[in-house]
Amino acid sequence: MKLTPEHRQIADTVTRFVEKEINPHVPEWEAAEIYPAHEVFKKLGALGMLGIKYPEEYGGLGLDFSYSMVMAEAMGNCHCGGVPMSVGVQTDMCTPALARFGSEELKREFLVPAIAGDAVGCIAVSEPGGGSDVAAVKTTAKTVDGDYVINGSKMWITNGLQADWCCLLANTSDGPVHKNKSLIMVPMDARGISKQKIKKIGMNSSDTAQLFFDNVQVPKRNVVGQEGMGFMFQMMQFQEERLWAAASGLRGLDRILDATIEYTRERKAFGKSVLDNQVVHFRLAELRTEIEALRALTWKAIELYVGGADVTKLASMAKLKVGRLSREVADSCLQYWGGMGFTWDNPVSIAYRDNRLGSIGGGTDEVMLGIICKLEGTLPKGSH
Question: Gene3D superfamilies recorded for this chain (predicted)?
């Protein structure tokens, strides 16, 4: 895809923001296992970076999806994975269905402050019993006296401790599992919501929570689009989420490889630099080639999506590849750092911990393979 000067301007703006407003604070935020999302979002909102693809009438820039993906790639300059993931939840995971299908009233109440950076959002789909099987969610939103009354629990919710609202997937009827679910906008200060922090092995700058809903009452007007369309809307959101995951991983992979080349050039072993060993520089060249192949796949999918195509297969391929390649790059590079790579604050060890989530969150590798096989027509007869 050919990028315009406007694309590059957004990339430069985000890169400067990351270098000035995020990276100096990463050690502190990693140690605290949380970052000040409201403060960071407000600054990003002032730059117009939280609503790049959304209409100007709601505070967005009114640009196409490719500009949002330029931002996602530039966020890869962060020295951790948690902050970009948190921002991506706001821009490409909890707001797409709201922006596309939400009522005017819901957009004014939830989308406008999210774009401005005045509110932090989260997406509440996964549950303690599982995350990848979206059709199996158990949380219910039953109609009582004209309102929804929500009961259940949601798990692994990024921004969950700081969010002002969540876009919640719940069963609103007893019908077929793909037609009985709805997306509902839920203010996080509603009575009956409680939160519990989840301690993770990576993505530590980003807060993650389990959410509990005990007879939480919200108006029925808070449903996004039509009741019963939640599963379909969530599947549509996944296309953008998975493309975001692929795009946001690219610059981080380049960054880790660059740092490893620099370190191995300076590190001496047995009378010469580690980089001088053919096994090392050949491996780094191979990994760089893999990154560029992923970049080509990702931007092909983005270009087609902007053109109106269904890119479910390509987005699934890109999501699969970024998860696996991120693990491969971090593991290979850590090896060449030796003992330094095994220290906690080393940039490669941070990537090693953070990148492991890539093959789990937003749809596991196995789910991506299942989607690809289904669309390739290679599943055994009777499989779904």
Answer: Acyl-CoA dehydrogenase/oxidase, N-terminal domain, Butyryl-CoA Dehydrogenase, subunit A, domain 2, Butyryl-CoA Dehydrogenase, subunit A, domain 3
